[in-house]
Write a structure and sequence with these properties.
The chain is built from 20 helices and 18 strands. It is of the alpha/beta class and about 525 residues long. The strands form six sheets. Strands 2-1-3-15-6 form a five-stranded mixed sheet. Strands 9-12-8-13 form a four-stranded mixed sheet. A hairpin with a 2-residue loop joins strand 4 and strand 5. The radius of gyration is 33 Å and the shape is globular.
Length: about 525
Amino acid sequence: MSRKKGLAALLVLLLSFATILAACGGNNKDAGGNSGASPASPSASAKAPESSAAAPEEKPVLKALRNYMQDDYNSYPVNQYIQEKTGYTVRNDMLPQEKPGDKLNLIMASGADYDFIDAMNTQDFFNFAKNGALTDLTPLIEQFGPNIKQALSPESLAGATVDGKLYGIPTLNVSYVRDGLLIRTDWLDKVGKAMPTTLDEFVDVLKAFKEQDPGGNGKNNIPFTIDSIGLVDNIMGAFGIYGQWNELDGKPVNVSSHPALKDYASFMRSLYEQGLLDKEFATNKSATSAEKFTSGRAGVIWARWSSIPGYDEAIKKNVPDAAYQFIPPMKGPDGRSGFTQIGGFNKITFVPKSAKHPEDVVKMVNAMLDPETFKGIFVGEEGVTYTLENGNYMPIEPAFFEQRGSANNFVIGMDEANFVTYWQARLQKSKAMFDNFQLVNSIPKEQIHQDVLAFAPYLPKYSANGAKLDSAVNDYLIKMIVDGVSDDSIAGLQKAWNGAGGEEVAQEVSSWYASK
């Protein structure tokens, strides 16, 4: 009996061992590629994460509305660079060059089909925010925007905050003199005149341009051209007027109530009456006055230094021997002179409430503000688009201007600690632009006057009415220059300005200014 029991136990043990071997053999076969492998098997579970990691993140195409520029946004190299560095493809539309704010307001009123929009007029941005038309970016930037918070100062972010909510990403502006009067210096030589230093000398030069016709234009000769503007920098500085708002006796005063407005308007009127100012200035577009200057018909033009590269290219084709430069600050009757200095924000980029991909916009901007990526967007690659000389960024021509000349239109926010250093390369776009920028921005500090509202926060009444009031002043000034200036016409301008909400705006601006 004991022997049988021992044999039976041995048989049970052998059968159990064979069963284990069969089971192990089956698992090894599955590990070798059997399609029926159990999901719980070690090999199958190891493969799952590999498959998941290999799948690329699907990112939506973002649709943008940008400010006007001459280049095509979508084919410009920076657009491709942003896609490579962030993984986001951006399809760009553009606002028109003339009256972009009107078009933007129409688009926003009809339901903006854009993921993000650039607003150059900060008060437009504030209006949209107050009207509930924008996405609150505060939680998105908190979660997905560490580079945004690092690159932009708290003061800049506060400038795009309304009622405690961050509704936009501000792009800081370099503070500089933007506008001036370009004069044909070769015409000065031909008529035997020096660069004017006073308004009287300026009039004398314009008369010589008219009478001696140094450009050989005959009846098409134009001593001085501007587009449809009423306030002309340098000339208005000679009367102590610096932009739409001025500080007088420690208080902000709108130009409509400036005590020198009548004298300024009368001077401009006298130029018009004498045939020294373009007879068509009231209807000129910016492109029209530019063509008159670059074709060789006009001797002086009101211009922004940033437009000089385009002017330079055109005038060299039409008048190869032409020479020009900005007129330094001219003194007026009381010895005053100077330029207006802009500052504040170049633009504020916002996400409409109707946007489909707000989170992705913040992720893209955050990637763009990685320090090295921002540098690449702004100035490109060392040795390809720029070189470093004693710490200065110098462009490599023509690569820099072909690939990065318009890069500032693409940036959203700024690496505020470094962008001014990078920005100097952009000034070298043309020698003429660089030289003229230096000329108007290297004048004595007492002749440079900061725009009073450059860094103003959200001011509800000014936001709602500021653009309309500025247009009213401009329109009235143009009318006075063409039809005549009198105490009644100045009083009419002031009455119209006050009636359009100007008095309330003035009180609001004064209250803010007093609290600074």
